[in-house]
Every structure is written in C-alpha cells, then in structure tokens.
Structure of V-set domain-containing T-cell activation inhibitor 1-like:
Amino acid sequence: LIIGYCDVQLTWKVLDIFTPISICSLIVSIFVTAGLIILILSVSLSGQGLGGSKGTVYSIDKWPIGNLGEDVILSCKFKTSTNSRESTSQVSITWTKEGLSEVVYKYDKGAVQLTKQNPQFKNRTLLFSDAIGGGNASLLLRDVKVGDNGVYYCSVSTPSCSGTASVNLRVAAFSAPKFKRVNTTLTAEAERWFPKPNVTWLDVNDNVLNESETSFFNNSAGITRFISSLQPIKLYGSYTCIIQNPLVKAVSQATVKGPVNTFQRKYNFILRKYLDENCMLDNSHPV
Ligand SMILES: *[C@@H]1O[C@H](CO)[C@@H](O)[C@H](O)[C@H]1NC(C)=O
Ligand SMILES: *[C@@H]1O[C@H](CO)[C@@H](O)[C@H](O)[C@H]1NC(C)=O
Ligand SMILES: *[C@@H]1O[C@H](CO)[C@@H](O)[C@H](O)[C@H]1NC(C)=O
Ligand SMILES: *[C@@H]1O[C@H](CO)[C@@H](O)[C@H](O)[C@H]1NC(C)=O
Ligand SMILES: *[C@@H]1O[C@H](CO)[C@@H](O)[C@H](O)[C@H]1NC(C)=O
Ligand SMILES: *[C@@H]1O[C@H](CO)[C@@H](O)[C@H](O)[C@H]1NC(C)=O
C-alpha cells in the first residue's frame, strides 16, 4: 500500500504480521531480523534506495470518489524518519496525472510553480499550504469534472524523505432523493446520478417490493434524474429506497404515518471505495 521507500515502515509491517503468533519471541525476532535484512536488500537492489533517503510518502485515501461539481481532496502525506517539521523551503511536491504530460500542480522550494500546469486544472487546484511543513501534500481539487477521473501521482522530495504515492480518483454524481406521497403512492425523486443507478424498494422487513416503477431522464451533461414510484403503500409503514451504481449506494428511508401525507426520512451515502479489491495492492508506479 505504501509507495516510496522507507525501511522503518516496512519493519512495522513485518512486526504486525508476526505479533499475533508470538508464542516464542526468540523465533519471532529471528524472523523479523531475517525479514528486515531481506527487505533492506530488496529495497537497495531495486535502485530506489539510492540517495539514502528516509521517510515515506503515502495516501490515506487511495480510492476517493468525487461528486461532480463539488470539491474533492486527493490525500497525500509524507513522514520523515525523525518526525520533525520540514522547512517548506526544502519541500518539493509535484502532482501529475496518468496520461498527461503537464503537471496538475507543482510546489517547489516554498513557491507555487504553475507555468507548466495542464489547462484542465487551471484555477481548480490548491495545496494546504499551512500544513505542508507538517507533512500534508494533499491536493484540493475544486468543481470536479468527468475528465478528472483517473490516477494521480503525488511526488514529494525533501532532504529526509522522497517518494511517490498514487491516488485513484473516480468521478460520480449522487444526490439524496426527495420523497413524496399522494394517497397510496410513494415516490422518490433524485436529480443527479452518474453513472446511471438502479433503484430498489424494500419494506420494513427488507423484502424487495416489486410494485415499483422508475423513469430515468438524461440531462445534457449525461447526468441521470429519476422518479421512482411505489404503489400501493400502507398508511402506516416504513419503506427503504436503495439507489446504487458501481460507485455509490444511497440508502434512504421514508416512514409513512397515517392518512395525512407526512413522513420522515433519513438517508446515508455509502461510497464504494474499491471497484475491485485486487486493485488495491496493484497500484504501484515507477518513480
Ligand atoms: C491535510 O490532509 C487531509 C487529507 O489527507 C485534509 O483533510 C486536511 O484538511 C489537510 N489539512 C490539514 C491542515 O491537515
Ligand atoms: C478562478 O477562480 C475564482 C474563484 O473561483 C474566479 O473568481 C476566477 O474568475 C477564476 N479565474 C480564472 C482565470 O478562471
Ligand atoms: C387521493 O384520494 C382522494 C380521495 O380518495 C381522491 O379524491 C384523489 O383524487 C386522490 N388523488 C390522486 C392523485 O389519486
Ligand atoms: C412480484 O412479481 C412476481 C412475478 O414477477 C409475482 O409472482 C409476485 O407475486 C410479485 N410479488 C408481489 C409482492 O407482488
Ligand atoms: C441517457 O444517455 C445514455 C448515454 O448517453 C443512453 O445510453 C441512455 O439510453 C439515455 N437514456 C435516456 C432515457 O435517454
Ligand atoms: C444494481 O446496481 C448494483 C451496482 O451497480 C449492482 O451490483 C446490482 O446487481 C444492480 N441490481 C440490479 C437488479 O440490476
């Protein structure tokens, strides 16, 4: 999960694996030592250890989902071996995107360098400048667009730390449904979904209700609006509407309370962070 190179971090990984079965601490320490030697050897043989750098560059959210038109943070952090603050005049941060030759954002020795910035990102990107010295190289990307989808690389170089972390941004659109009831028909309407979702209704016991009908409408930007109606409903009851596409699942509940057309609703979004669990580990990028 960690791209870059840092023998300290790799050692912790080995300890994590062996601690739960530490019946014999002597054997464990032999394994750890052997593992450490192998890791140090492989790191230096891979060529990445040249320069003798310490520290690590990583992302705490490698699979963010951006909501079209809103802002998203591409997470990137760096940690020096001493955990001390870096002087920002010695920090260089370059964000690039796979397939683009120009940079997304570049910060070098205390100054923003945007002469070679790709026009797609003009005026839409920012670093958290106050937090750079503390190891925060995260990028704020404003007004997310469909074309922002893709793999980003955050390369950090300081006197005591250097490496690259990747972040895989997926772009979706999602908005909460509004419920309406007229007599025994309950409808859910949502304005912005992308990719096109499917809609399922459940009763209070989580049984799927098949007396529903959903109409989808496209707007000009390829975003889907839909209205889904469920009929007949009971005068007192709770209904769950599930809207999902491969990236986002929204679970919303409407509670019908008597013949007066009032109800309560609550909802939450579940962002599907991993398109495919196997992709999580295979995310490296040659520096
Ligand atoms: C640092 O990075 C995280 C994302 O990784 C972000 O949420 C946060 O606001 C940033 N800024 C500070 C001051 O920590
Ligand atoms: C940059 O963004 C600001 C605020 O979002 C806006 O007022 C300004 O016109 C933009 N400038 C360019 C060159 O797009
Ligand atoms: C709702 O029910 C009332 C009374 O039964 C009826 O008059 C009205 O037309 C119904 N409304 C709709 C939209 O079906
Ligand atoms: C759902 O549809 C199936 C056939 O498509 C039907 O047999 C079944 O009775 C329906 N369930 C309800 C609760 O209406
Ligand atoms: C909406 O657009 C998509 C792709 O642009 C298309 O496949 C789909 O048939 C359209 N749906 C409607 C209801 O127009
Ligand atoms: C609805 O969409 C989800 C996510 O894309 C998918 O896993 C599920 O199979 C779909 N259900 C139906 C009935 O199409």
Observations:
- The radius of gyration is 25 Å.
- Residues 1-24, 43-53, 275-287 have pLDDT under 50 and may be disordered.
- The longest strand covers residues 161-172.
